[in-house]
Amino acid sequence: MRSESESVIDGPPMTQQGDGSDRRLVLPEPYLLFLGDTCLVTDLKTAFGLRDWAPEKCIGQYRMSEHTTSIGLADMGFGAALAAGAKSLLIGVASAGGAIPKSWWPHLCSAAHAGLSIISGMHDPLRCVPNLSEIAAESGCSLVDIRHWQPEHSVGTGIRRQGRRLLTVGTDCAIGKKYTALAISKAMGQAGMKATFRATGQTGIMLAGAGVPIDSVISDFVSGAAESLSPDNVSDHWDIIEGQGTLFHPAYAAVSLGLLHGSQPDLIVLCHDHRRKEIDGFPGFLVPTPLEAIDLNLSLARLTNSQVRCAGISLNTSGLDDESRRSLFRSLEDDLGYACFDPIVTGVGKVLEQLA
Questions:
Q1: Phi, then psi, of 313 in degrees rounded to 5
Q2: What number does CATH give the domain 9-148?
Q3: Same fold across 9-148 and 164-352
Q4: What is the CATH number of domain 164-352?
Q5: Torsion angle of alpha carbons 181, 13, 68, 284, nearest 10°?
Q6: C-alpha distances out from residue 172 to 77, 279, 280, 283, 356, Å
Q7: Does pTM top 0.90 for this prediction?
Q8: What are the residue ranges spanned by the domains of the chain?
Q9: What is the strand order of the sheet 143-145 is part of?
Q10: What does the pLDDT look like over 106-159, one tens digit per residue?
């Protein structure tokens, strides 16, 4: 495991506050969102997450070509972004494996040379880009590797903690777990309830300024990291924990299981895309039915919380009209017996009703 002394943040504009699970990032903002040469919408979930949940921090987007998928922000070069007040180039791509492609290298170096700090959530550290560290040092800007920013972790204990916890789980990746957790946490705060969003992925950490990049933790320590993420709290406080992956994923199920056991959720909310038939990027691996996913998550979660239950099913229905959405909800609720909602379109009131 990486030692605490290994630097993952270079340059003066970046600061840290606190330590352990309370350690916070203070990132140089606002951002120019880097979309690279990406054409897959699902690979741009970091960019979309920042655009949707922190729009005031997003100056524009940088695309390597006109063929790169747009997220609807103004296209800007590095000079124009700096003139508009941007402090960082934030990599908005979250691709499988998290490698930094060689095709990006000259663009990242040009951004640092222009004076933009670079924020990355990729698995590859920014120091792997030739000359980038030297260019950043000369320009006086930061290189920030979100996925490599974490304290040491202990193994999980399984010991129950005070306070209450809700974990979003899914039938696939990139299916709304972060958006659902953010929406629930926001609604609880607006209702005067005690709630904290707990980030477990790079985008969530960028938004919250704290968290644990759970898919970068050595497998033996994933449950322990999840325990430290949501420590003891007062009895009426809710930690709303961002889920990762799915128990049905041929590559990432181990992350999902460790997070499930360490989170010890009192409630789970299942996130599902009714349009998907196969696990994204893995042909031949079928997306489970919502009931299959709920049953397996509850069965495995009972190892560390025997009282866990499901609070509902979160669906992305942005492509449906109102009547089609209501029909889908009615059908699933009648068949499965769980409340259905769209956290963005209809809100999360059905979940809040079960938090008493």
A1: -120, 125
A2: 3.40.50.720
A3: yes
A4: 3.40.50.300
A5: -40
A6: 35, 6, 7, 13, 29
A7: no
A8: 9-148, 164-352
A9: 9-10, 143-145, 117-120, 88-91, 31-36, 58-63
A10: 999 999 999 999 999 999 999 999 999 999 999 999 999 988 766 678 898 999
